[in-house]
């Protein structure tokens, strides 16, 4: 049996380590102490050159870099079995979604670059995730969880003996993550409960119904603690036995594994372009897993760009945490000051970029460290920036992307005067209009 004893999960707060061989290992083992915990992947740096002959599927292409692969190997599955699981799951997803996972395109947006005044040596590169499963990057995160669950079943390492005994999956979301979760759950006929606010979009609710998800509307209760009532109800469901199937690494660390495929793709695609490396990466931030995974993927490549985590004036807890951390021991030691840096935003206001209005940035710690290590910073954008970025993106690139999906570009607009014309900048368009 292959082993990976130096690979596993280490909590960024308490330091507890969990061996990679352990199944259903999505939370820190000390979580019952009532404190904050944030498991992070620990593994040797792997070569990031994608494997050939896998049809562009990023999970199969970067399989040897996935924590999932080490978990499957440690539980006795050989190379052929591991690749077979990914191929079979992708086929099921393609049946449910109309497309399987693919390496999404990266292109220099020439018209956009010209309009923003970039020179021929610089410019704006767009990573277009709108053609991915569920129309966004969210399915990458969730596929990491699903692959772990299915593999644990195959290894006989779950407390349930058959698919009919599976506990339900649960997610708190009213947008792209919910659609992605429902798509993947339907692909494997796994029951899913989606906890949504009373203001959820009718279009999203209709899509969830078509995907056989069980929708639970969550009104705020007088007895609720501060924070999102959907998250409260989600956590209650998990405490009652549901499997956390969301995109917060603090709730299920396995979402941080699959999400890194986006960073790996970006890093290798830029390397293949030749020329100077990427200077800046603007990433829209709600719960934070997207930015955490993007920077983790680049970090493994050895080429860490300057990360700008973008939030709106309507809800900017990460920017507040960055400022508070700077007043204390700095962003790299912020884990010791969680309650002093990160707490729910008191007055979440409406925004066209409604997909990043998480009142807490759950995966804030690796984002702060990533910005500090690369010389980046958070960017808080106005609603005018949000609207202008989306209009410009759709007009200049033709990509039918939502306001949430172009919020990273809004960050570039907000600090355009600080970016030199010869810099190479990347944004990610993620989330189709609904």
Residues in helices, as a percent range: 25-40%
How many β-strand runs?
13
Beta-strand residue fraction:
5-15%
End-to-end separation in angstroms reads 47 Å
**Radius of gyration using CA atoms only:** 20 Å
SSE pattern, N- to C-terminal:
EEEHHHEHEHEHEHEHEHHEHEHHHEHHE
pLDDT < 50 stretches: none
Structural class: alpha/beta
Q: Quick one: biggest sheet?
A: 6 strands, mixed
Approximate shape: globular
The strand order across the widest sheet is 4-5-13-10-11-12
Count of alpha/pi helices: 16
Quote the average pLDDT: 94
Give a verbal description of the structure.
With 434 residues, the protein is an alpha/beta fold. It has 16 helices and 13 strands. The protein has helices spanning 58-61, 67-74, 79-97, 110-115, 138-154, 176-187, 202-210, 229-239, 255-258, 260-273, 289-301, 317-327, 338-341, 364-374, 383-397, 407-414, and strands spanning 8-11, 17-19, 39-42, 106-108, 123-128, 169-172, 192-197, 214-218, 243-244, 280-284, 306-312, 379-381, 424-429. Strands 4-5-13-10-11-12 form a six-stranded mixed sheet, with helices on both faces. The protein has a four-stranded parallel sheet with strand order 8-7-6-9, sandwiched between helices.
Output the keywords.
alpha/beta, 38% helix
Give me the secondary-structure topology.
Elements lengths: L7 E4 L5 E3 L19 E4 L15 H4 L5 H8 L4 H19 L8 E3 L1 H6 L7 E6 L9 H17 L14 E4 L3 H12 L4 E6 L4 H9 L3 E5 L10 H11 L3 E2 L10 H4 L1 H14 L6 E5 L4 H13 L4 E7 L4 H11 L10 H4 L22 H11 L4 E3 L1 H15 L9 H8 L9 E6 L5
Parallel strand pairs: 5-13, 6-7, 6-9, 7-8, 10-11, 10-13, 11-12
Antiparallel strand pairs: 1-2, 1-3, 4-5
Helix pairs in contact: 3-6, 5-6, 10-11, 11-14, 15-16
């Amino acid at each position: 049996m292959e082993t990976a004893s130096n690979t596993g999960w280490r909590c960024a707060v308490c330091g507890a380590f969990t061996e990679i061989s352990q199944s259903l290992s999505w939370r820190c083992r000390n979580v019952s102490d009532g404190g904050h915990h944030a498991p992070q992947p620990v593994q040797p740096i792997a070569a990031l050159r994608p494997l050939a002959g896998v049809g562009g599927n990023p999970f199969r292409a970067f399989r040897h870099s996935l924590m999932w692969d080490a978990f499957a190997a440690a539980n006795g599955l050989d190379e052929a079995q591991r690749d077979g699981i990914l191929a079979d799951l992708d086929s099921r997803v393609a049946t449910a979604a109309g497309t399987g996972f693919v390496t999404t395109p990266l292109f220099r947006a020439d018209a956009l670059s010209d309009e923003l005044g970039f020179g021929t040596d610089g410019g704006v590169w767009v990573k277009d995730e709108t053609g991915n499963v569920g129309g966004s990057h969210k399915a990458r995160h969730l596929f990491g969880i699903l692959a772990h669950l299915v593999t644990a079943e195959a290894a006989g390492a779950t407390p349930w003996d058959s698919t009919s005994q599976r506990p339900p999956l649960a997610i708190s979301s009213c947008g792209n993550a919910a659609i992605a979760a429902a798509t993947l759950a339907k692909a494997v006929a796994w029951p899913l409960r989606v906890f949504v606010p009373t203001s959820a979009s009718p279009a999203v609710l209709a899509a969830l119904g078509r995907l056989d998800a069980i929708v639970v509307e969550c009104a705020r209760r007088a007895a609720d603690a501060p924070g999102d009532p959907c998250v409260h109800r989600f956590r209650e469901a998990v405490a009652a036995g549901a499997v956390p199937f969301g995109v917060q690494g603090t709730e299920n660390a396995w979402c941080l594994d699959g999400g890194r495929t986006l960073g790996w793709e970006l890093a290798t695609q830029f390397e293949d372009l030749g020329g100077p490396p990427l200077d800046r990466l603007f990433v829209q931030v709600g719960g934070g897993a997207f930015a955490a995974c993007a920077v983790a993927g680049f970090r493994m490549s050895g080429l860490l760009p300057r990360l700008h985590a973008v939030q709106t004036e309507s809800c900017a807890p990460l920017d507040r945490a960055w400022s508070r951390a700077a007043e204390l021991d700095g962003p790299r030691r912020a884990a010791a000051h969680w309650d002093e840096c990160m707490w729910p935003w008191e007055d979440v206001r409406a925004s066209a970029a409604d997909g990043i209005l998480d009142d807490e940035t759950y995966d804030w710690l690796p984002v702060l460290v990533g910005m500090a290590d690369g010389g980046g910073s958070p960017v808080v954008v106005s609603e005018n920036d949000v609207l202008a970025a989306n209009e410009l993106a759709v007009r200049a690139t033709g990509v039918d992307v939502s306001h949430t999906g172009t919020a990273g570009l809004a960050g570039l607009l907000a600090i355009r005067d600080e970016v030199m014309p010869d810099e190479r900048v990347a944004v990610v368009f993620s989330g189709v209009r609904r």
